[in-house]
Here is the input.
Amino acid sequence: MPSKTSPIGVFDSGVGGVSVLRAMRALMPEEPVIYFGDQGHVPYGPRSMEQIQNFSEGITKFLLDHDSKLIVVACNTASAAALTFLRQRFSFVSFVGMEPAVKPAAETTITGRVGVLATPATFQGALYASVVERFAAGVELFQHTCPGLVTQIEKGELDSVTTRAILEDALHPMLEKNIDTVVLGCTHYPFVIPLIEQIVGKNVRVIDPAPAVAKQAKRLLETAGIKNQTWGRAHIRFFTSGTPPEMKSLLPVLLGETGEVESVAWKNDCEIE
Ligand code: DGL
Here is the structure.
């Protein structure tokens, strides 16, 4: 049975979820965390919903085997493909998921035109359709999947010529349509906010949902009475299905902290060894 001192399980296809982890660290540094990056399978975006659901199930089992008291699906794509399923399958634990932040964008846009950057699977999922239906009435949305951007960020190319070109391809047509807000619907994308801001200029608001997700995680822990009461900065355990040195080398840049990264292997699509 997980207790107050048990870790929060956080996962993503790769290092994208570190943008959520960073917000969680800022808000509740005393919470121990297990972070799983499925870098053996990244990117998730072009994969089938079924496959992403299988991976998400396997990772959730792994995080629960490591005593997680709460699961943060720090990945819009996995949330789109698997959140409903995970909540049914593992009904004894709470999940925090992600959805593109169309609601705050729709509430604050003045031009009524909003750009959304996310992966193909996120745009195809029922979750996005429902967010648009519930919150985007009267707002025009311009979507782009930014092909190749997740891979660039996984390589640590946060400011290269190629990364800039991908973002310009996505954003220039939106700027021509007079957007005043950009929603980051993929947890990898906050790492290129400086580049996005250079391209869109200071009159366009860029929305990173990570702080709101961290707050929601904290609220759930408090409500369930499982918030850690210990003072200090807790330990983070990192796991990857890819190459540990690659993830390790990115942590200081992406998280502002160092950490050891442990290696894990998949047995099949929904089981980790
Ligand atoms: N970081 C992810 C997301 O929020 C997944 C990106 C990918 O693997 O394609 O959607």
